[in-house]
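User: Can you predict the 3D structure of Crotonobetainyl-CoA:carnitine CoA-transferase? Sequence below.
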Amino acid sequence: MTSEVRALPPAQRTLPAMLQRQAAQFGSRPLLRIAGRQWTHSDAAEAAGVRAGALVQAGVARGDRIAVMCGNRIEFLETFLGAGWMGASIVPVNTASMGPQIEYFLANSAAKLLVIEAGFLDRLKTADLGRTSVREVWVVGEGDAAGEPPADVRVSNYPEGSEAIAPAAVQPGDPLAILYTSGTTGPAKGVICPHAQYFWWGVNSAEVLGVGRDDVLCTTLPLFHINALNTFAQAALTGAEVVFESRFSASGFWPSMRASGATVVYLLGAMVPILLAQPPGDGERDHRVRTGLGPGVPSAAGQAFKARTGVSLLEGYGSTETNFAIATAPDSPRGGVMGWLRPGFQACVADEDDVALPPGEAGELLLRADEPYAFASGYFNMPEKTVEAWRNLWFHTGDRVVRDADGAFRFVDRIKDAIRRRGENISSFEVEQVLLSHPGVASCAVYPVRSELAEDEVMAALVAREGERIDPVELSRFCEGRLPYFAVPRYIDVLPDLPRTENGKVQKFKLRERGVGPHTWDGRPLRS
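Assistant: Sure. Here are the predicted structure tokens for Crotonobetainyl-CoA:carnitine CoA-transferase:
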């Protein structure tokens, strides 16, 4: 099936073309189960046209942006499909975002409409919509109002529907989504994801996992990330069914997989050790799951997972800016690697001058695609960052890897000052800005340290203002109201000074090497 899809001409690599093709080819076959709602493959195209009509009635035009802050609900997918159908772009907002982050995403993307779940309305109390382009807010579900909106912002319930409209003549390179990924030395960057990139995400992921029309794909990951959005593309292109769970639960994972009839699952690195920490039980074998995607899962954990559950997890590499470019396979000759380069992509391991390095030497992973628009088009309203990342005709991933003699790629570490925790990319810059807004903090540095779950934990080294005393517990509470939960530092060190270069730049590598010490405050008991 995927070979047939791979051969589709460029004009068919758009979301409207995908939806029309699947309606014609798969019709009444089950497509979707989410929060008690169900769709067939035909329903998806109909829902897209209806939602597109409602967006047009609300004044959204082709090329506009629509922000969505919503859990795994059908309204999220309706808005996504409707936007793509009419030629607008969706801007997913992480549901853990607080007021300052929401305001930034809305302002930076110049979104005209905000679709927000009622349970998140209170977050808008600390976001100034008057500084954004939002002129209308659709509220999904029931909840209290978020106070008085600006006079020129209209707040209404999410409209039930409208008369369906015909799809716009969108092109493969037209923007479909702007997905925000954490910056390192600055604010988060909006990755411009074109229609063809979404198409190729679905094709490549389905090929890696061997997805066919009889599969049931099940994910507990959030729709505001490309990983979960991608599962919809896999099902749409192959005729499979996809089930979106509301959230990940260690105790409820296998019961939900059994109830859904899942055959393919999607996990992130830390989720596997969490599942393995559960008491063994018969439910780990009483299911239909045949394979899963598990990027970042430690090799030993993957082996233990297969021994307990019978499920082999495939490793791979892809970022919001790229695609599923590197992956293992069920018959890969060895584990402990990210995988081998997939068809349609080129890779280079390079030094700081972009000179290719021989096998066995560590360098930055550079990627590019053979097909047009299979990668992101750049960063929204950030031309300098776009040129920096895509210089010399390669996308610079910021990850240090080694290519072995057999062509396998091994991850070494991150070159950029980024932190990845619970599947989320965290900007040390943004965390530092919140810490520096505390009246007792004179200077700070935020950096990753490894956790027992084979992922990053957030650590902060602080210097107190003269005459002030920093209480880590109070500081942690201060951060909780201003940062997503996953970005709040777990570890805090209060130091007399930070290590610096001669020109005053903080030497974070020395702090990382120092790591967690006997006097480090650990906030885990507060949030466990």
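The chain has a mean pLDDT of 91. The CA atoms of residues 280 and 308 lie 8 Å apart.
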